[in-house]
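lol ok so funny story. i was supposed to be doing the assay writeup but got distracted and ended up predicting the structure for this chain instead. priorities right. anyway since i did it might as well share w the group, maybe its usefull for someone
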Amino acid sequence: MTALILRELRLAASGGTALLPLIFFLLVATLFPFAVGPDRPLLARTGGGALWMAALLAALLPVDRLVEPDRAGGVLDQLALRGVNEEAVAVAKLIGHWLSFGPPLMLAAIPAAALMKLPREVLLRVEIGLLVGTPGLTALTLMVGALTAGLRGTGAMAGLLMLPLAVPILIFGAGMIEQGFETGAIKLLGAVSLLLIAAAPFATGAAIRACRD
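and the output, tada:
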């Protein structure tokens, strides 16, 4: 398992899977103030939601590189021949992808919040929300990547599948920023994230078996 997780981290570092979402996230944070103007109260009100939207769209970028290269290169077949079941492969991919996506995104949120002139308490809510919500986004991305592996037009298909399913994460994440920790938004965000994490190994494993056959 450790070897598989380290392999996912190496692939993310060498293939740009980890870098592209961060660049996209920071570009959105840079361009958003130009779109809405320099009004500090307006940026403080809308910036947190914009960061959540940027995180959601950034999660889509590596979707076609999570499962498809291993399927096309025969890596999944080799792992199956060695007795590694598909659910274990899915867990390793889930952990490896989150480690290359979640913590770097949380670090990138600090300069992004400065660009949007977000107050410190709003930044704290964004960071806690990303800590709770990015594992769910990672799990959803992995499931969609496995379901669309081997299909033409993976990017468009993945967007059509993932964006509606990610709406609860977006709603509860943005709701926590506006209403604070005293509401149930953080609990609902955690519940959705845990549900996606629990379902991801089984759904991804079944999709891997189907695309390998």
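Residues 87 and 202 are 6 Å apart (CA to CA). The mean pLDDT is 83.
back to the writeup now i swear
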